[in-house]
Amino acid sequence: MVESGTPVGGGGGLDEQRAVRLAKLEALKAEGTVPYADRFARTHDLVGVRQAAEATDGTPAADAPLVRTAGRVMTVRPFGRLVFLHLQDGSGRCQVALDEKDVGAEVIERFSRFVDLGDHIGVEGRVGRTKKGEPTLFATSWTFLSKALRPLPEKWKGLGDLEARQRERYLDLVSNPDTRARFRLRTRFVREMRRYLDDHGFEEVDTPVLQTKASGALARPFHSHHNALDLPVVLRIAPETWLKQCVAGGLDRVYEIARCFRNEGMDPSHLQDFTLVEWYAAYWDFRDNMAFTESLVLHLLDEVVGSRVIEHGGRTIDFTPPWPVRPMRDLIRDDCGIDVEAHPTADGLRAAIQAAKIRLERDDLDVVGRGTLIDLLYKKVSRPKLIDPVFVTEHPIDLSPLARRSDVAPLRTDRYQLVVNTWEVINAYSELVDPIDQRQRFEAQASARAGGDDEALEVDEDYLRCMEHGMPPMSGWGMGLERFLALVTDQDNLREVVLFPLMRPLGHGAEAAPEGDEGTATREAAAAPVESAVPSSPATSIDVSDIAGAAADDVADLGIDESTARALFDEWVETPSLRRQMEMTRVVMGALARHRGANELAWRMIGLLHNLDYDREKDPQRHTLVAAEVLRDAGMHPAAIHAICAHNDKNLEGTGITCTSALDHALSASEAVVGLLHAAAQVLPSKAVADLKVKSAVKRHRDPKFAATVERDLIERSAALGLSLEAFYELAIEALKAEPVG
What we know:
alpha+beta; CATH 2.40.50.140; eight-stranded mixed beta sheet; 18 strands
């Protein structure tokens, strides 16, 4: 059987196959065939052909009506004078038979000579069944429609990783029926949501994508410039304020399916270019809104998904109503003991978080406002625990600059979020329609922005002017479409429900500046060392002679105590993600020490300090050597310093430092494995390493495209410790499960 991706005329590499196909293209032209037809009149799509064939009893009668269909050639199976093939179109697949007794030897020969997998052909014939009962179109003629110059992926092997599927989505759609089904579900979902909103009195509107001020959410915008008006502009982060102006103008119920843009970090649960569905209803409050949301979501599950119980990431999520309602303040207090209302200022709340030893993953915690702090705290201690649908209500006023203040609790708002599987899939509230209150909140946001919080809003005078003309009571609602679709289609990465997500162009990277980039050239020149008679190298600038020969399998006395190690760690390491990585390495090193009967405290401190200089030293040939000087001055044992340097031995050529001892191998393997485990955990709903399975982690290890920057060869240094890959991953996961790192 000739499978997808293999030309009918033979195998070979990609360049060879393309050359063969180009030769066939020229041969087609030479014989007078147009290799790229303008149209083909079909009587049936391929599913229609198959259904017609299923209704027959066997071989078609000679006087049976002719049908015409077309599609892409996916498989070819020659059996002497008979050729079976499968065609695929947008509806599905159907088998086609070319029988020499029906079409003649010349037609069979021409098909075999010119047709490759991936080509499009048209076929005319009669439907029936083969001797084995397979529904089939028995062709009487075929027509060339389009020549493919590149082969399809071989049984999907060629697009087995996530990035390739997203970069070449057209091949994903051709080769993977699950992908086609997923995007068709997206289409049906949007269509049914529109119908439901229309049926309940909502009107669809369009609002501006280019704006002079970002409003409607706390997020970083994309900036651009309007040449004709000579104005700085931003891409919208939400359509909210425009939709509310529609309601103020008398359109009582409006909605928009809006493309929005937020210039924020990339991870599996966030997109920078996404679809936000928002609606606003006059004379509703957030309780009316909650009731409508529950009915809308259940309707979509019933009509589009077909079930109110779904599976996601191995978890069963039950949408059976009623859904619980939990105030955010109560969740945070129950999960970490901090009552956010007891800390009305950002400084007070920041101090409480630090006193509770809760580490938030932000580099700018000293400048963000109270609302952002509350949001970060909630996302750290509470949201990861929310799996089944729950309405999280009564968000603090600092976090909700456009929501109505609660009448009974002035520090809270009449707001809710629907959280499912730890994801915020819907955000809604009773809208603030008091222009004086709104101005005060805008000004508070502007102050936070001036202090460095670039997610805070600016004062929107146009919107305030609209409010002063009078707005009715109203409630609004927003759903991140991709999040909900990823949830119901069991996808861990939102990019898998976007047809063509933004990708870095092939060959584009920080190391490759485009020609003519004078700014880059200037920066590179400024960074280049001044020429010297003596070549610059790590060995000439930092003396490592006492370290190079100091490797040892263990150290009885590290030379520094834990408090000294911690002080160095706090002084030198600032980036939250780096601190987390070093803490995780500490935990895994401790587990390896216990496994080997080595000095556990020493190994843990070596793990904690292994990237001590990484925040400050960006030259890979000096990384770890700067740390070596600091640790030598602090009194650390030379063998421990050797292990720290040896994990970077690829960049220390000429220093004499190489990974040789058990301690060296342990640190190299530990610091690399935590990188892969952290990356693997990010595709889980919980994002917790403790929830990883050993088998899954090893599978990720063996996929070179997953977390491609992780150096697998360093992880495999665990073999020098007598540990198989599976055993090492199990040890690391169990250690991080027993001692989680926040």
